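FORM 7B - TANDEM STRUCTURE REPORT

SECTION 1: FIRST PROTEIN
SEQUENCE AND TOKENS:
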Amino acid sequence: MSKYLRQYADHQAYKDDTTRPTDRSSVSVAGNGVEYDGKNVIVPYRSASLEMGDEKLYDLAEHREVILKHGTYNAATFDSARYVRSEAFYLLSYADRDIFVYKKCIGDKSNAYHGGSADGSELWAANNEYKVTCDLTQSGGFSYTCTPYSAAISGSCSWVAGATIASVVSQLTTGSGLSVKAIGDNAIRFSLSTYNNGTITFSGVSNATVLDCSLSARIGINGTPKGSHAGFQGQAVKTIFPALEYMAASIVCYCESGNNSSYRTNVRPATFKSYHSASGAAAFAAESEVVPMKKSVWDALATDEDATHKALYDKYGGDYDQYLLSRRIKKNICKGINATCREQGMAYTYALANCYFTDAEGNTKHVYPGAAICAAFGITVDGETTGFEPGNWYMNSCTELVEELTPEHVTTLNAAIATAPGGQTIQYRAQWAVGEYLGNIAWFYTPTCGALFSNYKCYSYQVRPLLASKRV
């Protein structure tokens, strides 16, 4: 290695030298900086020398964490027998942690609404389930009604002694947000997806029993069940689990101008401009309004006789780009948003992942699947502690989501992600954050308008875990 350690007086001298090897690693000291060249440049793990896109590895020969420098990975010469890839790439550091972004989104659901139909999506909160157990040795029946979304769904059924559960299920009316499934020989699962905290109301129940599975909601697998209805997709976490009171929902989202931009704040300026130029507010909107004005409305302010309107135009020198940039979210702060700051992302992930319920088929399930899938994610190696195991990964906070999706970061991270088999680029995927907006709404990034946005917990969006490592 020392043969390929070179020193230059300054960076220009380094650039002028064309004799450095390209078929292996080399390290150059150029003035006060360090440059890495060649293929599969692997260096000791030092937090101070991390650069965007560096990948964290584990060295099985020396039993320690190391770094693969961004831009140097070469599959043909990479020693996969010696080095375990985390396939997670350096994003940022804070406090005592270095944060790495995993190569792709995880989850077993698809989402065609935002980000395409690729797998890797999860619900923020689970559907509510009900179990109806029918005594088919006697005649019976029941009726039900619910409003999963905007339209009510109602139905009824009846049976005579000796009927089959299939014949009962065939009578049931379902629709968007409501599904049913036969369980064994005599029970039915009703699964309710809702954005309005709706419940299923059963009436006229004869020779059947109804169980609301949300009654079993609890903190910890062996925790004490709530015993009262919990609207997983329609109630704030602290409402369902008062012991997690610190996880209060918040709709406050401050931008660079100091205003509360509520649910639509600029994350990716180019996309934000493209969207709002045509689809922004169609009339004058004060700077405190959620949706900024579209380009034609802004341009008309130049000759507007209303002093207030003209004052806003003059504040930004008539520059529409600067006006939109003032809607840029306050990076590093995301002031006021629940689970906003980086320190909260991991704590909130594991708190949410520790909330369970028992479903209609008797299975233990997570109340908050998006957080739970991140908490459970990991890479294990027999006999080694790599730092990639479950317990080190989590669901991003709003701040980390904003930091991850800056245009500059996305470009670098996507180049790094491209080196990992099965990697998914970042920018076109709607992605959940761990924070709540309201009882039935959580924060996420929307690629449609390039903004930190909010939407219903019953939707499936991408979930991309972050790896947290202790700084060294």
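SECTION 2: SECOND PROTEIN
SEQUENCE AND TOKENS:
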Amino acid sequence: MPTYVLLSTLTDQGRKTIKAKPSRINQVNKEIESMGAKVVAQYALLGPYDFVNIIEAKDNKAIAKISVELGSRGSVQFLTMPAIPIDEFIASLK
């Protein structure tokens, strides 16, 4: 499955939610998996983004649906990028 990087920034509402209930983060990961994707890795960040998620999804349409679904809740904003494995990238340059 293709790999995607999701950089996320919490809104005020999102910060309030995870402060009151930090386990909400894991619940969202389960929701992502119920939509047919797999959370490969997740890290909390310091700086302009709050989290980075590495996700495997079927295709661009699937990850777009996930981004819209989660973003429509008003608690988070995403920057979603496809990621190319380095060996595939190198091979494409030959």
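SECTION 3: OBSERVATIONS ON SECOND PROTEIN
Residues 3-92 form a domain with the Alpha-Beta Plaits fold (CATH 3.30.70.920).
The chain has a mean pLDDT of 96.

SECTION 4: SIGNATURE
Preparer initials: ____
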